[in-house]
Amino acid sequence: MTQTKTMISTTQAPAAIGPYSQAVRVGDLLFTSGQVALDPATGALVGGGIREQTTRVLDNLAAVLEEAGLDMANVVKTTVFLKNMADFAAMNEVYARYFAPEGVVPPARSTVEVARLPKDALVEIEVIATQT
Known about the structure:
It is a single chain. The chain is an alpha+beta fold. Helices cover about 25% and strands about 25% of the residues. The protein has two helices and six strands, in the order βββαβαββ. It has a six-stranded mixed sheet, with helices on one face. β2 and β3 form a beta hairpin. The longest helix has 18 residues. The protein is globular and about 40 Å long. The relative contact order is 0.23. The model has no long low-confidence stretch (mean pLDDT about 95).
């Protein structure tokens, strides 16, 4: 049995700048593309450091999830790409506000340091979410 693959797209997050979707739904699962700290209105990387960029990334992801009828509590797995692992604690502080509020089971997570990210961003995050 094949399941339908459906594209999810919103103007409340940065437009895809290549041959990919902001997110794809297959059955009860939603797979997002990685988001960097681009302002959806201007397409420019937000100013500031890791805290500001992590906030923008997570706001972008929240917008994509909302378009799919989901929210951060539906996220079961994240992958975090950091330009510098020294930014981990600051990123994690912002991340916790979105993914681990009181009473919410936080998603599984992998975090890796990478040499470079699109637009020279400091952080990129992708998620897998479920409707159930």
